Amino acid sequence: MHPNRQTALGLTVAVAVVAAALVGCERGTSTGGGSSAPGPTTAGCPAVLAGAQAAVQRAMKTNPAWHGPTRGPRAVPGKSIVYVAQTMTNPGVAGAAKGVREAARALGWNVRVIDGQGTPAGIQAAFSQALALQPSGIVIGGFDPKLTSQQVAKANARHIPLIGWHAVDSPGPSKDPELFSNITTRVRNVAKISADWVITHAHGHAGVVVFTDASIPFARNKSELIKKGLATCDGVRLLAEENIPIPDTSSRTPQQVSSLLSRFRDRWTYSVAINDVYFADAAPALRAAGKKGAGAPFNIGAGDGDPSAFQRINSRQFQAATVPEPLSQQGWQILDEFNRAFSGEPPSGYVAPVHISTAANSGGATTWDPPGYRAAYLNIWGK
């Protein structure tokens, strides 16, 4: 997940503690809720559990039918695209850029990636460099366009189409900032399926810790939605919500995990994080406490599903699941949306459905790359 969701970016209480759990956290703080020992067999919310199980089963499918666009304009020749990346060390940003490059080869377009190095000054400089190249279109790759409002205004004035990847909260066109389209899954769907997975895996009984970054509105919204989803099951208790800014995860998470283990011991059975990175940093503390990699707390990342998350999942080392973005597919969609913009047509309106990856359905892969989209786009483009 990139920082603006990171994206996304961007978890759950019984009825008796809903009001307390939904109170926002201050930066770097923890909130606690009620707790109960999980019951291994009896469901705490039979109707909710049944719905969650059905949703998880759908999201676990590895060969879904293509429900994206099948019609559109033929490829416009000779276009040049600049992908301004928040930072290429972010696996989500890099994965989408890889998809853009692959699609550009199929279209015969030129693509240049400029790395913003993860700082406001670096991103602004990268965007200014992109404008100087006078490209046909610019990708806002994983950062808030407000960071580059002057450059965005210049691009709009020059009628250079802008397409975001996780640039704003919602998929599709944006008026403020002015984007032809923004490519992302719907945060409410990511939040809901994360909660559904916990309810399903726990058979309706869980003690949950939520990891979020309240300094990022997208992430804070995602964690609130996850909490609301988990709160629909009476057998789920929010033990704590840990507010750890993403830049501080490596220094803060191990200490917080040790504290959580001391406070809740075996009552802590599940975790949901707005980004997989929290579990990379939690693993050493869990291991030091004698926890088993394939045991509780069972962890799910409501993030991008980067390769390291898949590696932890596949090796059953302190992460059980992730809700990954189809990064390569989204790269292809970005170029299809540009082709529509260049042809004077509206955006496709397509939003990829959510998916859950676990060791049981990943097949050892380190990304989520659904079938069907390459053939569909090549057919649209006449390639």
Question: Which CATH class of the largest domain is shown?
Answer: Alpha Beta
Number of DSSP E strands: 13
Strand order of the largest sheet: 1-9-8-10-11-12-13
User: How far from one another are the termini?
Assistant: 32 Å
Order of helices and strands: HEHEHEHEHEEEHEHEHEHEHEHEH
Largest sheet: 7 strands, mixed
What structural class do helix, strand and pairing data support? alpha/beta
Search tags:
13 strands, 6-stranded mixed β-sheet, 38% helix, 2 domains, 7-stranded mixed β-sheet, 383 residues, alpha/beta, Rossmann fold, Periplasmic binding protein domain-containing protein, single chain, signal, 15% strand, 12 helices
How would you portray this structure in words?
The protein is of the alpha/beta class. It has 2 domains: about 15-65 and about 190-325, Response regulator (Rossmann fold, 3-Layer(aba) Sandwich); about 80-185 and about 330-350, 3-Layer(aba) Sandwich (Rossmann fold), CATH 3.40.50. Helices cover about 40% and strands about 15% of the residues. It has 12 helices and 13 strands. The protein has helices spanning about 20, 45-60, 90-105, 120-130, 150-155, 185-200, 215-230, 250-265, 275-290, 305-315, 325-340, 375-380, and strands at about 30, 80-85, 110-115, 135-140, 160-165, 170-175, 180-185, 205-210, 235-245, 270-275, 300, 320, 355-360. The strands form 2 sheets. The chain has a 7-stranded mixed beta sheet, with helices on both faces. Strands 3-2-4-5-7-6 form a 6-stranded mixed beta sheet, sandwiched between helices. Helix 6 (about 185-200) runs parallel beside helix 7 (about 215-230) and helix 8 (about 250-265) crosses helix 9 (about 275-290). The radius of gyration is 21 Å and the shape is globular. The two termini are about 30 Å apart. The relative contact order is 0.20. Mean pLDDT is about 90; it is low at about 1-30 and about 35-40. Its main location: other. Keywords: Signal.
